Every structure is written in structure tokens, then in C-alpha cells.
Amino acid sequence: MADTEAGAESATGDIEGINVPRVTDWLVANVEGVQPPFSFELIAGGRSNLTFRVTDAAGRDLVLRRPPISHVLPTAHDMGREFRIISALQDTPVPVAPSLGFCDDESVNERPFYVMGYVDGYILRDAATAEKVLDEHGRRRAGESIAEVMAAIHAVDVDKVGLGDLGRREGYIERQLKRWYSQFKQSSELLNRTVPLVDEVHDFLAARIPEQGPATIVHGDYRLDNTMLGDDGNVKAVLDWEICTLGDPLADVGLLMVYWADKDDDNPALGVAPTATEGFPSRAEVREIYAATSGRDVAQLDFYVAFGYWKLACILEGVYSRYVGGAGGGDRSGVDFMGDQVVRLSESAKAAASSL
After folding, report:
1. What is d(CA 146, CA 102) in angstroms, rounded to the nearest whole number?
2. Closest to 82 (Cα-Cα) out of 239, 215, 221
3. Domains of the chain as residue ranges with CATH
4. Which member of 215, 266, 285, 290 has the lowest number of beta carbons within 10 Å of its beta carbon?
5. Which residues pair with 62 in a beta bridge?
6. Given pLDDT bands bounded at 50, 70 and 90, which one contains residue 44?
């Protein structure tokens, strides 16, 4: 992986998020061929779930995923669900990391966790990294591959891979509006604040839900930095499946449009804009690559873009509440930005909805 948040830790004693002795025992008992002792390294990007690179005594690398340290909302951060999904996708055209083991015994590490194989590649979180690791041709290919892999996700036969019961197939947007609005309200109550535009856009969208086509896998948070890229720009693994379910695939497309910043965008959704770097296809081009690859009608995509902004505002409110509550080990960098960005995202949601 391209970057890390902390240096490798000693294999002796606990580190935040890892009970080293108990996790070591579990790894030896459940992952074939590993050799203790292990070092644990927190991988950058852990605003939500914590992701650790685990290296054994022979130099073999694994990845361990667990929920955040505190303020976990009900139904959020389901490690078992995420592990089930990547296991089911192992033999499909969708690139995922090898699934190695799941632990639901909370006496081991306080929360459930799972372990997967380490995929060597790049996560592009900012423009500087994008320019450093890929040339313009590679950045162009990354945009094409992102769209093509999203189409592959939506083309998976869910019954064939054993995910037909992952979620209800009908009423996806209705259920999503209810779920994220409920979690937004819980987070806002913890913060003792209101964001009236989130309420307003919720009601506006709820009254204008398009008719859903056949249900597919919906990743739920599909974006550039939730993929691992190779030297050529191709997607080597799709990451972060924790909120994946069955439903309307256009929700994934709309959210990707929210994340995918163009060169002239002055307020990127996440505050950074790697895709605005020279070489990446534009937002409109990514949309058309997806449409051509999937054969899916994207004429009503504006609704899903508005929904994407609104959903991201709700999610970020939850992340913000956890950091205000002390998650992240005392690291306060970017916390105030998160709170302000919830408001800006709700404003963008209203602006996108105004075209409906």
C-alpha cells in the first residue's frame, strides 16, 4: 500500500485497537501458515473502521479490519457482513483481496474483526499521490477501470455467488433514506446540533424516488480511494464493503459522481480532489464509460447524485460525532472540517436536487 498512518509496532504489548497476545493466538490458530511474532501497522484512512497491516516473522503481509474504538452506532461496522461479501466475490470478475478468516469472539479483541490477504498497490487519496505513482496514461486508465469494475460489481449474479439474501431487493432508496436519516439523527443528538438542510433534502428526495430496476449488489461507498490500483492504473482490489447490500445500482453511480471531482470544482466532497489531476477522465466521461460497459440507462442519474450528497452528509455526521467523542486516539486534525463539510454537502445535495 502507498502510505501508512503510523510506524510498525512491536509484537509485545497492546496497541490501540489490537490486543496483541490474543490476536496473535487467534492468527496462529486460524490463518494457515503464519509465523509469529507479528508486527501491526495502522494503515492511513481510518476515519471509520481501523485497518492494520500485519506482518509475520517470515515477512508475510496480511490485513486486519476492525470497527472504530468508540461510538459505534447500531448496525454499523459489521465485520462479518464485509467478510462474507469479499469471500463470495473471490471467483467473480470483481477484484477483491483474498479472504482468510473472521473472528466474532469479542473476548479476543473487544470487537469482531476479519483478516484478508495483503494486496500490493496504491490508494490515491490526494493529487500529490496520484501524480507521483501514475503517469497521465495510468490516471486515464484508473478512471476507465473504476467505471468498468463498478459495472462488473453490478453484473454479479447474486444468487449464484450466495448473496441473494444479503438484503431486500425492493425499495432500496426508501430504506436507505430511512437508515441514514436515523443514523444522522442519532449522531446529531450526540453532538447536540441541527443541520436543517439535511431534513429538508430528505423530505424532498423521499417524495421523488424513481422506480427501481432489477436489484444488484450495491457497494455503498464506491470511490477511487476505496480501491487498490496497480502500476498501470487498473483496479487490483475493491475495498471497504461494510455497507454493501442489494438494491439500485444507480445509487453507486450517483455517489461516485459526487466523489469524482473535475478540474474546476471548488468544493470537492472530501476536501481533496485526486481526480482533478491531469489525465483522469472527467465526471461525465466516467458516467458514459459506466453506461456503455453496463448497458444501463443513466437518464435519471441527477436524483442519485443528490441522494449521494445527502447520504455522504449523513455518514460524515457519524464520523464527526465519533471524533468529537474521542475516536482516533486524540488526533483532532480535520475534525472541525468534518463538521463544516456536513453543512456544505447538504447544500450541494439541495443544489443537485433543484434540477429534479
Report:
1. 28
2. 239
3. 20-117 (3.30.200.20), 127-353 (3.90.1200.10)
4. 266
5. 54, 117
6. low
